[in-house]
Amino acid sequence: MIVITGAAGFISSCLVQKLNDEGFYDLVLVDDFSSAEQNKNFEGKRFSHQVDRKDFIQWIRANHIHTQFIFHLGARTDTTEFDYALLNELNLEYSKEVWNACVEFGLPLVYASSAATYGLGEQGYEDDERTLDTLKPLNPYGESKNYFDIWALKQPRAPYFWAGMKFFNVYGPNEYHKGRMASVILHTFNQIKATGEMKLFQSHNPKFKDGEQMRDFVYVKDVINVLYFFMHHRKDSGIYNLGTGKARTFLDLATNTFKALNKEPEISFIPTPEDIRDKYQYFTEAPMHKLLAIGYNNPFHTLEEGVSDYVQNYLVSGKYF
What we know:
The protein is of the alpha/beta class. It has a domain at about 1-170 and about 215-245 and about 285-300: NAD(P)-binding Rossmann-like Domain (Rossmann fold, 3-Layer(aba) Sandwich). The protein contains eleven helices and 13 strands. The protein has helices spanning about 10-20, 35-40, 55-65, 85-105, 140-155, 185-195, 220-235, 250-260, 275, 290-295, 305-315, and strands spanning about 1-5, 25-30, 50, 70, 110-115, 160-165, 170, 200, 215, 215-220, 240, 250, 265-270. The strands form four sheets. The protein has a seven-stranded parallel β-sheet, sandwiched between helices. Helix 4 links the parallel strand 4 and strand 5 (about 110-115). Helix 8 (about 250-260) crosses helix 11.
């Protein structure tokens, strides 16, 4: 059995489909399955068990002998969440329990970290484990992810193989439930559909023109290919960036969404909301040489390719992956 936590969520549900496509059906989906909207993400997919998140540690103790791999991707991912107790419970303490279970039962582990750990990038974006203590995340979510990375590296006992994946700006099908936290592509598509135009955030940084804020946007299909690679690789434990290695502008993102819809761009700018303005990343880019050095050689979608596939094959029809 292969375990996927956060299975009703965005990346996890796409991973479930990837595993199905590769012939894996004995999957254990772990999540809080109370959201009918999120549960649509795994409709039609094949799996053997559903386990409530609160019951999972007890479940793995009873079923570890039949388990071959754990993808721990479940987390509270809202970057505007300021309930430290909730983030500590879900992103830190729960992840420690999963880690310790993997140690106890000899199970390999891939878990979700985040590029939010890098903050404004004062220390750069290298996935160098020696610099974790120097990082300055901009929000409690990023802090919770960095705390766990630091904790994991300090443990005297670790799973025989483990990898923490620093996801950059992931976009693609099955993010429909994410609301404000969904990708700008989804917001652009929805705005074009409703009004025929897109309003991007202004720049409040003199180094960047409006719309030229840059992020490393990575298509979810590339993300799940990397996760699948690690399921078979099972060596070179550590923390890895997962982006494309190429920063692009929000203007590029919106323009390509219009193009995928065969529409002329109609883009204007509005002030960045004050609650995120002081904690806004103007540039992120994932150095990817660490992943490439261990043998990963699948090409990543360009922004143009990813946006076109997402818009034309999923958003227009409302399809799930």
